[in-house]
Design brief:
With 416 residues, the chain is mainly α. It has 20 helices and no strands.
Length: 416
């Protein structure tokens, strides 16, 4: 087992560094805000879609999209604008979970979520530390998670990804403690962003079937059916409308895999498929692990890291990197099997995690001393290889360990 006896950020220098890490992303957001109005947040589409539904209108309609555009951009968008049309592209049952915000003005919605989302990041980070079982300093680790650029950007954009991440963390911890009914409910609620929850839910359901944990399966199934039934009651035939909206969303935002952005379309697709195959093999190998074992937490981390790696994305969707927190915990201080190539991959991944913090500091320093620029604004978002490096470093030593051939001692062979 490889653990460090040195406390993180010890002494007054460590305290000063923590203060800097906390202040720098806030200052960078302040610089970016020079060209972003308060209403330019991702929650606007959910808020307007929810209001449209309870007014008896279709949240997927062109009229609702125009309503969102007028609020977000100040006017209706034309094809010549080449910007995100900001349509409602969430599943219909998202509106059920966010129904209370339909009654609030936007200023109140922003205030509520600016308080709620940081608290959820703290809670989810704390839960992932419990689930993975790594011996990191909880207050400092949670503080670093909160001050990381993906978290800060997610809070700034009022991103539902934080809510999904917290629901998934809560479900996994409840499973470890044997509370299957609320865990199933949490997993069903996490499907408001199915692209983020699908892989982890699929592995957990496989784990449920193989270990005969029927309570979790029934709880998840009944909860999901109830949500979908309510959604269908609100808007019959919504599934096809949502599929069209989600397809258009992917198209007009020109989303692609991280590795496609680095290595090109075909090579990036092949590399992503190979990486996904390796991760799936590992998940299959550990499909029967005990809920209270280190393998369970590791497989949850692998599932979420794989999700981020194979999810079509763009620079502004860095907020999805909050799903990488459990994998980061395991890489930084864990009992991953010793392996030379694995150690190299781990060093690269930890270095890139460090760069994700340092890049914000560099941007702020240069922008403050010289002048802001589009390049410096975007520098903290330039972390396309971060999810891949984390996933490789996480699964490589585990694959070597789990698929290592069993060697039978010579004396046992002779006696046989």
């Amino acid at each position: 087992m490889r653990t460090s006896n040195k406390p993180m950020f010890a002494g007054w220098r460590g305290f000063v560094l923590l203060i800097v890490i906390g202040v720098v992303p806030l200052w960078h957001l302040h610089i970016i805000n020079r060209m972003m109005a308060p209403q330019k947040a991702d929650m606007v589409a959910v808020w307007k879609g929810t209001q449209a539904t309870f007014d008896g209108r279709d949240p997927y309609s062109d009229a609702t999209m125009r309503d969102i555009q007028v609020f977000y951009y100040g006017r209706e968008v034309t094809p010549a604008d080449r910007v995100n049309p900001m349509g409602y592209a969430y599943p219909m049952h998202t509106i059920i979970l966010f129904a209370p915000i339909a009654l609030l003005p936007w200023s109140a919605v922003r205030a509520v979520f600016f308080i709620l989302l940081p608290l959820l990041i703290v809670v989810s980070s704390w839960l992932w530390l419990d689930i993975t079982g790594v011996p990191l300093s909880r207050p400092k680790t949670v503080f670093l998670c909160l001050c990381s650029w993906p978290s800060m950007w997610a809070i700034h954009q009022i991103q539902p990804t934080i809510i999904v991440a917290t629901l998934l963390a809560g479900a996994c911890l409840l499973i470890q403690h044997g509370n299957m009914v609320p865990a199933g409910i949490f997993l069903a609620m996490a499907t408001i962003k199915p692209q983020l929850a699908a892989i982890l839910i699929a592995w957990l359901l496989l784990w449920t079937l193989l270990r005969n944990v029927w309570t979790l399966l029934l709880s998840f199934s009944f909860s999901l059916v109830a949500l979908l039934a309510c959604a269908t009651w609100l808007l019959p035939g919504w599934v096809q409308r949502w599929r069209v909206a989600a397809t258009e969303y992917t198209a007009y935002r020109h989303l692609r895999l991280d590795l496609q952005g680095v290595f090109g379309h075909f090579l990036g697709l092949i590399l992503s498929a190979a990486l996904a195959l390796c991760a799936i093999l590992l998940l299959w190998r550990c499909r029967r692990c005990a809920a209270n074992s280190s393998d369970f937490g590791a497989m949850c981390a692998v599932s979420l890291a794989l999700t981020v790696c194979i999810l079509p994305t763009e620079l502004a969707m860095t907020y999805n990197y909050v799903l990488l927190f459990p994998a980061c915990f395991i890489l930084i201080e864990s009992d991953l099997p010793e392996h030379s190539a694995g150690d190299l991959a781990r060093s690269i991944a930890v270095g890139m995690i460090g760069w994700s913090f340092l890049s914000v500091m560099v941007s702020v320093l240069v922008e403050t001393l010289i002048r802001p620029s589009d390049f410096l604004d975007a520098l903290p978002f330039q972390t396309a290889l971060l999810p891949t490096s984390i996933l490789v470093a996480l699964i490589y030593p585990l694959l070597v360990e789990k698929f290592k051939p069993v060697r039978v001692p010579v004396d046992q062979i002779q006696s046989a």
